[in-house]
Amino acid sequence: MKRTLFFTAVVLLTALAVTPLFSEAETVKCVIAPQFDKAGGFCEGLAFVKIGGKLIKWGYIDKSGEVVIKPQFEWVCDFKDGMARIKAGKKYGYIDKKGKEVIEPIFDKTGDFKEGLAWVKIEGKWGYIDKKGNYVIEPKFKGASDFCEGLARVMTGFRWEFIDRTGGFVIRNEYDWAGDFSEGMAVVELAGKFGYIDKTGSCVINPQFDQAESFSEGLAKVEVKGRAGYIDKTGKYVIAPKYEYNARSFKEGMAVVVIGDRVGFIDKNGIQAVKPQFDAVRDFSGGLAAVKIDGKWGYIDKTGKYVIEPQFEEDAGSFSEGLAPVLVGGKWGYIKHPLK
């Protein structure tokens, strides 16, 4: 979207009372020792890390913490469909899980492989390649996005339209902006208002919102007059717009909401599931959410109970494939999901 929709910034503490620690909460130790300058979550069994002292480069580790692809790249991304985007020198390409360069870094920008294709930018134009690096759709667009549910949005002129996997136009209605398809619908912007279309290009929810996000778990976050609420696929409000704009989409049945300077969670009925009491939070992943309070990060379950008590003073990431990155003493390591 045109505005950052993810709220993880630390806000000033107040004197509000907070939920006390529960006896079930644990103090945990890293299963992969803090040793990395930066680290990501695990995807397809590997996580990207940054190490190397003065000549810091990106590489990948496995779940034992062993470096399986040596740090050698200027930038990397998660593995998707067995391949990862990398930057070597000033150009972007792709590697496999052995670190082998499978598509030469010749592109100015690249996207992840989704549904077998990836968008690439070269010489100012966007097109799509297959996993062998062959052009399936020649670079000819002014902008492009991932294929989602069989369609991809591309920019022609100054507007957005949708193509199929052959490059043929499916939805020729021109929009000022468009989002990817999710759950059969895509956000579109027209004359400053946001609504939704289906895969035939028919407008199913008229542009009427000041901002809107993709559908997630059957609901979509929308904004009206600076307040966020949630609608169903008929456009009806399920949760009235009453939250700060930096509320988030639903993940695992829970959505982050902000009241004043406190952050908490609601369920899909709009019921306050976890009282707004935190400085910052991350979305639920693997049944747990990282939360920051009194300057420390810990993890709660969906009832608001601490499963891992706040103990990480610098940073903590979400669980992915059973592990979560945490920052300790200026270095990143990993902790194990306590319930798996």
TrEMBL record:
InterPro entries reported for this sequence: WG_beta_rep (IPR032774)
Protein name per the record: WG repeat-containing protein
Presence of the UniProt keyword Signal in the record: yes
Superkingdom, taxonomy of origin: Bacteria
Keyword Protease: no
Signal peptide: 1-25
Keywords: Signal
